[in-house]
Amino acid sequence: MRLERLTARGFRNLEAVERDVPAEGAALLGRNGQGKTNLLEAIYYPVLFRSLRGSADAEVVMFGGAGFHVAARLASDTAALDIAATYQTAGKRKRIVVDGADVARLADAVGQWAAVAFLPGDVALASGPASERRHYLDRMLSLADRAYLAALSRYRAALAQRNSALRQGRGDLVTMFDAPLASAGALIVERRLRWLERAAPRFATELASLGEPGEGTVRYHGSAALADPAAWPDALERSRARDLARGLTTAGPHRDDLVLEVGGRELRAYGSTGQQRSAAIALKLVELETLAEARGTEPALLLDDVFAELDGERQRRLAARLVRPDVRQVFVTAPRADELPAGVDLPRWTVEGGKVSA
Predict the structure, then answer these.
(1) How many whole angstroms from its chain centre is CA 259?
(2) Rounded to an integer, what distance in angstroms lies between the CA atom of residue 209 and that of residue 282?
(3) Helix axis angle, 273-295 to 312-322, nearest 10°
(4) What is the dihedral of CA 261, 267, 272, 276, to 10 degrees?
(5) pLDDT averaged over the chain?
(6) What's the pLDDT score for residue 210?
(7) Which DSSP symbol is given to 11?
């Protein structure tokens, strides 16, 4: 399913956007600070109904505005779908509409459309803290698997309640949340480990395809035993005294991590900037394959200045791997057309002062 028409009003610095979108996507060109990334953000918003940069909805509203509206017309060979989200600053209210019907729960709207985005800051997937990689797992698997999304919602709710009881020193209340935490947490760990079985060889292959020497590996850092709900009571009991002392839950997938290595050396600690960037791109390519496999259709691909800081050979390899208009819709930003690698033959849009033009 591809984006056929985009509407955006009151969104960041963008002037009102009402545009038909080419089936192959577009190259978004313009000087820094003109709104290229904001336009990518508007394109991605109907995927998770939140900013791809992690900003709160109130921060996405045009300066001095009363709110924003984003709508996407999606179409495939056999179906069409209209999605819209409206946020009002007054009362911090957000309304989501799918094919003319209001959606009461965000979880019911997430994943109607799928896209994978790569931003310059995503190099933190390889260089940053564990929270970056957990967020990567949770976002990707939530889009690929509704059971994971539901379990993640239940887990976060139980975790918040359990942590609140721990902070109050209410050991008598803490155990009330152990069962829902275990039930949801076991499914999360099990689905992460199942994903890793296929993702680990894919990560190695993608890293090699980018021209990175040395074998790439990715492994799960956490208790695999917690994929079984029966293992949770003992794990929570062992950590109970520590949890009460710290006022937070110290066992569970909310503390787990992915360890990325090249040539047997951990990238976060020992990788060069180039290696870390290549590894982050490889993870995004694995995400692309994961969603395509789960959904039976290729997600759109949003690339924000992804070719910057790569040498010519890596640019050529990456462009050949990513920009395939016959397979997927691609949106890529660059300051100028001559900064795009050869072979990136997409319709050109110019973004200047928030105004989008062909």
Answers:
(1) 18
(2) 9
(3) 10
(4) 90
(5) 93
(6) 83
(7) B
Copy the structure tokens of residue 114.
Answer: 């799928």
- Burial of 223: CB neighbours in 10 Å, binned 0-12, 13-18, 19+: middle
- Provide, rounded to the nearest whole percent, the portion of the chain with pLDDT above 70: 100
Specify burial of residue 86 (Cβ count, 10 A radius: 0-12, 13-18, 19+).
middle
Q: For residue range 15-74, what is the model confidence (pLDDT) as tens digits? A: 999 999 999 999 999 999 999 999 999 999 999 999 999 899 999 999 999 999 999 999
Q: How many CB atoms lie within 10 A of CB 79?
A: 8
Phi, psi dihedral angles at 53 (to 5 degrees): -95, 5
Q: Please, which residues have CB within 8 angstroms of residue 188's CB and are 6 or more apart in sequence?
A: 148, 151, 152, 155, 253
Say how far apart CA 126 and CA 9 lie, in whole Å.
35
pLDDT for 278 beyond 80: yes
Instruction: Give the HSE-up count for residue 243: Cα atoms under 13 Å, Cβ half-sphere.
Output: 23
Domains of the chain as residue ranges with CATH? 1-114+297-358 (3.40.50.300), 130-295 (1.20.1050.90)
Classify the C-alpha dihedral 284-110-40-254 as positive or negative: negative
pLDDT of residue 77: 83
B/e letters for 121-158, b = 16+ CB within 10 Å, e = fewer, are: ebbbbbbbebebbbebbbbbbbbbbeebbebbebbeeb
Report pTM: 0.89
Residue 204 has, within 13 A of its CA and on its CB side, a CA count of 13
Would you state the structure tokens that stand for residue 192, as one six-digit string? Answer: 């992460």
Q: Which long-range contacts (CB under 8 A, 24 or more apart) does 245-251 make?
A: 246/166, 247/163, 247/166, 247/167, 248/163, 248/166, 248/167, 249/159, 249/162, 249/163, 249/166, 249/181, 251/223, 251/226
- How far is the C-alpha of 332 from the C-alpha of 353, rounded, in Å? 18
Tell me which H or E stretch contains 92.
none
Distance CA 246, CA 237 (A): 15
Residue 328 tokens read as: 């997927």
Return all residues near 33 (Cβ < 8 A) that are at least 6 apart: none
